[in-house]
TrEMBL record:
Residues 145-396 form the EAL domain. The lineage of its organism: Bacteria, Pseudomonadati, Pseudomonadota, Alphaproteobacteria, Hyphomicrobiales. Residues 21-140 form the Response regulatory domain. This is EAL domain-containing protein. Gene3D superfamilies: 3.40.50.2300, EAL domain (3.20.20.450).
């Protein structure tokens, strides 16, 4: 039997110092999407393959560490997949998924083992996402969380940064009305890591590069969402220092899409920073409005009275700090802060958003108090772009879970 030279360098899965990669091979689109979502949540980079003749290309370009192989009723396609894996000398793992007691699932495992492939014990349907998660998570490297923190320059240079999106929901219609972009690092060894591990100090020159990355990626993602779903109003988080850099602001305005469907970019600035730099930020907010950029005041809390004196208020939105939202249903003090900020927002004629809604009771309370928009784990966790686009198609309206 002839054998081709392998087209990629494969080392043992779990020891590679690059993001773990999985290819989901299944003819059914909805199954591929489900499996890819679970894997992405675990920090895998995923690719998908519908037919055996696409697999060769994926092996060569994506270098997957594991193939998740959906075994259909006739098993013919699964057989073809195995043949290609053998011909390409695939050295990663293969996990077959198929019906319980299916002869074909057993056959696929047996044939795979005879071919010398690293076949994992198959998963049988129906199975919970948790089952797959447990099975795959065991294969992930168990390195500790980064310490000391990774420098943002390294993360930027290596291309480890990405934006995750958390839905913002209209409190009255329950329709998804936008998304907050949150920066995440997909570290080769530690998986997906939140910004606390790499956000530079305020005086670090790399902070500007990180902000530029966020703006550029958000605008790229806006175009992608437009193609895959519909125009999505995106909010990003930036430090106030970015807006005080005149050149940076000019560049920002220049980066806004000229597309007619573009509804504008919202920039969330921490409330304490707004209070400290009020005069300057008011001028910037006025100026950028002409370029389809609006400023939101983020994490507003007990310091809300400091925002009262502003006469012409050029900001677009107040977001209440989740410290005063999570648990507000049963906490009079939190409700008092929320109500004061809502009242302030209404008197200024700007939108008011609750973030950190984790329970149904808080959602109801936020609605009754008069928030315009709500955001939080109950309504959607931050998720990778692909998952965000998919869930927008599947759940155009809030699923009342
Ligand atoms: O300060 P800012 O609003 O940008 O903070 C956003 C952070 O809050 C993100 O890291 C996000 O993961 C987190 N977050 C979003 N929704 C919730 C929630 O409902 N509960 C908690 N505890 N954190 C949340
Ligand atoms: Mn924010």
């Amino acid at each position: 039997m002839f054998r081709c030279k392998p087209e990629g360098i494969h080392t043992t899965f779990g020891r590679r110092k690059v993001s773990p990669r999985a290819c989901v091979a299944d003819s059914k689109k909805h199954l591929r999407a489900f499996l890819a979502d679970v894997l992405e949540d675990l920090g895998f980079v995923t690719s998908e393959c519908a037919k055996a003749d696409e697999l060769g290309e994926i092996l060569a370009t994506q270098l997957p560490d594991i193939i998740i192989l959906g075994v259909s009723v006739d098993g013919i396609e699964a057989g073809k997949f195995l043949e290609i894996l053998v011909r390409r000398e695939f050295s990663g793992k293969v996990l077959a998924i198929g019906a319980r007691e299916s002869i074909i699932v057993k056959a696929v495992r047996q044939v795979g083992e005879e071919y010398g492939l690293a076949m994992l014990p198959p998963i049988t349907t129906p199975f919970a996402a948790e089952t797959l998660r447990e099975r795959i998570a065991m294969l992930l490297p168990e390195d500790p969380v980064p310490s000391p923190a990774v420098h943002v320059a390294e993360a930027l240079h290596a291309g480890w940064l990405e934006l995750w999106y958390q839905p913002k929901i209209d409190a009255r219609t329950l329709v998804r009305c936008g998304a907050e972009a949150l920066v995440r690092m997909r570290h080769p060894t530690w998986g997906v890591v939140p910004p606390a591990y790499f956000i530079p100090e305020d005086d670090d020159p790399h902070l500007l590069r990180l902000s530029e990355f966020v703006i550029d990626r958000a605008m790229e993602d806006w175009h992608l969402l437009l193609e895959k779903h519909s125009p999505t109003d995106i909010s990003i988080n930036l430090p106030a220092s970015f807006l005080m850099d005149r050149q940076a602001v000019r560049d920002l305005c220049r980066r806004m899409p000229a597309h007619p469907a573009f509804g504008g970019l919202l920039i969330e600035i921490n409330s304490a920073e707004v209070v400290l730099n009020q005069k300057l930020l008011i001028d910037v907010a006025r100026e950028v409005r002409l370029h389809n950029v609006a400023i939101s005041i983020d994490d507003v809390g007990a310091d809300w009275p400091a925002l009262m004196g502003i006469e012409t208020f050029p900001f677009a939105e107040l977001k209440v700090d989740r410290q005063f939202v999570t648990g507000c249903a049963n906490d009079r003090l939190k409700q008092t802060v929320c109500r004061s900020i809502i009242e302030l927002a209404k008197s200024l004629g700007v939108r008011v958003v609750a973030e950190g809604i984790e329970s149904r009771a808080d959602f109801v309370a936020a609605n009754e108090m008069g928030f315009d928009q709500v955001q939080g784990y109950l309504l959607g966790k931050p998720m990778g772009l692909k998952k965000f686009a998919r869930s927008a198609l599947i759940h155009p309206v809030l699923a009342t879970k």
